[in-house]
Amino acid sequence: MDSTSIGVIAVVVGLAVGFTIAKLMEKGKASKTISSAKKEADSIVKEAKIEGENIRKDKIFQAKEKFLELKAEHEKVINSKDKKISEAEKRTRDKESQVSSELAKNKKISDELEEKIKEIDYKSDFFDKKQSELDKLHKNQVQQLEVISGLSAEDAKSQLLESLKETAKSDAMSYMQTTMEEAKLTAQQEAKKIIINTIQRIGTEEAIENCVSVFNLESDDVKGRIIGREGRNIRALEAATGVEIVVDDTPEAIILSCFDSVRREVARLSLHKLVTDGRIHPARIEEIVKKTEKQIEQEIIEIGKRTIIDLGIHGLHPELIRAVGRMKYRSSYGQNLLQHSREVAKLCGVMAAELGLNVKMAKRAGLLHDIGKVPNTEAEMETPHAILGMQWAEKFGEKPEVCNAIGAHHDEIEMKFLISPIVQVCDAISGARPGARRQVLDSYIQRLKDLEDIAFGFGGVQKAYAIQAGRELRVMVESEKVSDDKAAQLSFEISQKIQTDMTYPGQVKVTVIRETRAVNVAK
């Protein structure tokens, strides 16, 4: 064998020996690793067993705590239920004792009632016996009276009735009068309830306007300053205001006379400012009057605005607001026009509400129904106020219902809407109320004369006087012809005659006076 082969064999042998040695070393190392892994696994299993035991103990402890907690709650619930049951049992026992007490009381009351019933039955029988005995005694007495008087019971009764006829008539008249007075009181109470729902719900004060205002002065020395040198101040004041100023002997007063209340108010306020300031001359007078006119004009607008706000009316044209404000300084038959219009508006609202109509529109028509009474020019004064008011309302955009109600409230045009008769009726109510308007003197005197003539139409009347502005009629009668009982009857008959034949505001009290005199002369 050559050296190369030997070398190859040596290498192969070396590799085999190295491989074997490597395998042996690897096997030893693997056994060590396996034994180490087994030890580690045993350690992990041991730790896992210890941790599992700890967890098991912890869970058992938690379960015991939960059990104890649930047990305590259960015991609380049981104790609460036991307490409620005991309270219910106690209430039941109380109720039972109360019922027993009530039963005992009821039994006692029942026994007492039975005793009372027996007693009443006994008394009833006793009274029946007494009544029968009284009837027998009454019959015996009637028979004895018939024997004594020689008259039968029927004859005596007829004579008694005849003798009491006049007395009964007088008593009946007195009773009738008393009953009527009571009925009047009751009727007045009922009437007040109705009036409260209508007129008195919107009751207003009645201001009687006239054409004269009195301006009071601190002293008469101011009169000379107002008149001025040769009367120049007073002439300037009259020319600027259009008001007649009367300076006479009336102490500490000056009279302002003018049919236009606005001009009269301007003059009054201007005089007040001039007297307070102390500077009174024609130039100053003209300046103050112009300022006062502007002030009054502004006040008129403010009055109109306050009025429509008070009544709940919206969207009124500024010119109509101004006309409403001017109504404060205008009177109609002595009744302040603004107060009258406010009253009519409220009455219209009440009636419209009762009839289920538009309340706001009714108030609007009621407030504006008399705006034609405050014309701006003399040419407008020739047009009837209802027609003029309707024309203004149409001009300033009011609805047809409002315009028709304004124009028709004096029947000058045909009524086309339901609120038109309501405005007419409310206008009549406001104007016809006693004391609202000044009556014409002739009709007032005629009414008083008619009252006295009615009294003279009855027999036995000697004198008759209508007094207290026709609210009372005093009648003097002749004592020989009219008795006291007849006087009461005469008063009633006169009042009925007045009530039937006359129309008058309020009520008329009829007083009949009978006087008896005995006169003798000592000689």
Rg over CA atoms, rounded to whole Å, is: 57 Å
Mean pLDDT level? 80
Instruction: Provide the low-confidence segments as ranges.
Output: 203-209
Shape: flat
**Beta-strand residue fraction:** 5-15%
CA-CA gap between termini: 224 Å
Order of helix and strand elements from N to C terminus: HHHEHHEEHHHEEHHHHHHHEEHE
Please describe the biggest sheet, giving its number of strands, its sense, and whether it closes into a barrel.
Answer: 3 strands, antiparallel
- SS-based structural class? mainly alpha
In total, the number of strands is: 8
Q: What strand line-up does the widest sheet have?
A: 1-3-2
Q: Can you count the helices?
A: 16
Percent helix:
55-70%
Structure commentary:
- The chain is mainly alpha-helical.
- It contains 16 helices and 8 strands.
- It starts with a helix and ends in a 9-residue tail after the last strand.
Summarize the model shown.
This protein is mainly alpha-helical and 523 residues long.
Keywords, please?
mainly alpha; three-stranded antiparallel sheet; 16 helices; three-stranded mixed sheet; flat; 523 residues
Question: Secondary-structure map with pairings?
Answer:
Layout (H helix, E strand, L loop, with lengths): L2 H147 L3 H11 L1 H33 L14 E5 L4 H7 L4 H10 L2 E3 L6 E5 L3 H17 L4 H30 L6 H9 L4 E2 L2 E2 H19 L3 H10 L9 H4 L3 H11 L4 H9 L10 H14 L8 H16 L4 E7 L4 E6 L6 H18 L7 E6 L9
Parallel strand pairs: 7-8
Antiparallel strand pairs: 1-3, 2-3, 4-5, 6-7
Helix pairs in contact: 3-16, 5-7, 6-7, 7-8, 9-10, 9-14, 10-13, 10-14, 12-13, 13-14
